[in-house]
Structure formats: C-alpha cells, structure tokens
Amino acid sequence: MPPGQILDGKATAKAVRTDVAEGARRLQAQGTQPGLAVVLVGDDPASHVYVRNKDRAATDAGFAVQTRRLPAETSQADLLAVVRELGDDDAVHGILVQLPLPKHLDADEVVQAIPAHKDVDGLTLANVGLLAAGRPGLRPCTPAGCVELLDRYQLPIEGQHVVIVGRSMLVGKPLAQLMLARNATVTICHSRTQDLAAHCQRADIVVAAVGIPKLIQGDWLRPGAIVLDVGINRGEDGKLVGDVDFDSARERAAWITPVPGGIGPMTIAMLLANTLRSAAESSGVPLDSLGLAAR
Ligand code: NDP
Fold it and tell me: I need a labelling partner for 115 at 20 to 30 A (CA). Which of 20, 39, 253, 274 fits?
C-alpha cells in the first residue's frame, strides 16, 4: 500500500481564510466590519504565540482586532469587567479569552460571562447546549476545523465509524456531537478505555485529541483509515509532535494530518469563520450571501 496522503491543514486553512476575507469584504460593503476581541492574561509564552497568530490572521481577513493584554496578577473582578465591557461593545462580534488563565482565576466563570452570540470559541453553556440539541449556534473551533478539513477533501463522514480519543469539552465531546450530526457512528475513548488499540482498529476515521506524544501507533489502524491528529506536544528536541506516531501511521492510513500543519491552522481559520458568522447575524445579513453555510 502506498503511504497515506497528507491532509494539508495549512493549505486548506488558507483557502478558508480567503473565503472568510471575501465574506468580510461583502459584509463591510453593507456597513459592518467584523470585530474580534482577544483577551490574554499573563505571560505564558505559548499563549502569546497563539494570540499573535490569531490577531494576524483576523487582521489579514479584514477584521477589526483588539487584543487586551492584562498582567498575570489581574483579579477575577477586573477580568470579568473587561469581558463584560467587550460584551456591551457593538463593534465587537467575537470575544476570545485565551486559555489557560493564571491559576488564581476561575476560567469557567470568565468564559460563561461572554454573551453566547459573541462566544466564537463555542464554550459557553448556551452554545454547548445548542450543539447537543442540534440547533444553530457557534461551534468550538478545533472540532469544526476537523469537519471542515474532511469536507474540503470531500472525504465522507456519513455512515463512517469515527473513533475519537479524548473527551474534553474543547475537542472530544463537541467533535462527537458534530460527527453525530453528520450521521457518523461515533465511539469516544478516554483514559479509562480498555484496549484502546482495538477501538482504533475498528475506525474508518480516528481522531486523536489526548496530549500524549505518539500515543496512537500505526499498527492500531485499519489499512485505509483516515487519521486526524489534534495533539500538539513539545518533543524532547523542542519540536512539535502530535498524539499519533506519524511515520508508522502513515504506512497504514489512506489520509493523515501532519503536526504542525494539520488541525492547528484549521482551528484559527474556524475562529475567523465564527466571527464572520456572528458579525453577519448581529447585522441581519444572510449567511449564505457571505458564503457561510447555515448550521
Ligand atoms: P485535555 O487534557 O482536556 O483532554 C485529554 C483527553 O485525553 C481526556 O479526555 C483524557 O481522558 C484523554 N486521555 C488521557 N490519557 C489518555 C490515554 N492514555 N488514553 C486515552 N485517552 C486519554 O486535552 P484537550 O482536549 O484540551 O487537548 C488534547 C490535545 O489537543 C493536546 O495536545 C492539546 O494541546 C491539543 N489541542 C490542539 C488544538 C489545535 O488547535 N490543534 C486545540 C486544542 C487542543 P479523561 O477524560 O479520562 O481524563
């Protein structure tokens, strides 16, 4: 069998971002510039890189971006006040609080303070509930990026057996809901799952969202499977490595995402798409006129 083909998240994200920029141009022609606010607390170096990348991508798409950088010692009350101020600002259509927050802060309370219609990370209880109920809402960016990547490669989801390793609120659980909504058969695995390899061997599509470098081995895969590697881990040599052992997995898979250059860029692209969606809805512009699908 020839080695698996690469699902190029970087190139696909670029295509999504081009579409979003075109949608933003059309929305602006009707008087609304999409606005994204990013809130960053403290000095975590990885968070600073993520925020810079999001700021740049949103600016490139023609959005108005404001990044609020707050000191690590910011109090819960002060942070909540910033989030509420952004919530009341009509020029801001999307609010993103970069996680993790410093330990003394209650991240859940901060996230829940974001108005649901500006919750472009899809993490408020309102959006979690809307997704579970199969109703329109803002979807978490990483799972939405997984689905978008498969769609852009025209790889089928309906009827496929999707095995998701990881059950976080950020990735695993919402992805399971999105896949169910697309008529996949879904298995969710986690740290207490027995015989993870056996579950993976039954999958048409394996999604790894764990945070353990190279956990998923090539011989756990059915020949011809599709592999999405969400994991971002720092290897001993300082390089980024996924949750899948890429070299052995590629020998078995039909399609596989690399790390970096797979799901990571798709996540940022979906953040932009969510912000455009939110800006369109707040100004009453039909989504399809901006190239956005109704959900
Ligand atoms: P969490 O730590 O919140 O969740 C990890 C999940 O993996 C948990 O459900 C946990 O199970 C499960 N798990 C842990 N160990 C095992 C094991 N040995 N076997 C099977 N399952 C296991 O992580 P996130 O979901 O936030 O992130 C997962 C990975 O994805 C990380 O590497 C993160 O950096 C990356 N990530 C990448 C993004 C991107 O843009 N590409 C965005 C978000 C995350 P249990 O519930 O039982 O504890």
Answer: 20
pLDDT digits (tens, 9 = 90+) for 195-250: 999 999 999 999 999 999 999 999 999 999 999 999 999 988 989 999 999 999 99
Of residues 264, 265, 244, the one with CA closest to residue 255: 244
* 193 Cβ inside 6 Å of ligand 1: yes
187 lines ligand 1 (CB under 6 A): no
Domain at 106, CATH number? 3.40.50.10860
Supply 127's token pair: 């959006």
Q: Residue written as tokens 């408020």?
A: 124
pTM: 0.97
For 146-171, write each residue's pLDDT tens digit: 999 999 999 999 999 999 999 999 99
Q: What is the domain extent for residue 216?
A: 140-264
Domain tally for the chain? Answer: 2
Q: Is 140 in the pocket of ligand 1 (CB under 6 A)?
A: no
103 lies in the same domain as 183: no
Residue 12, in any domain of the structure: no
- Cα 62 to middle of ligand 1, angstroms: 33
Q: Return the structure tokens found at 151.
A: 């769609």
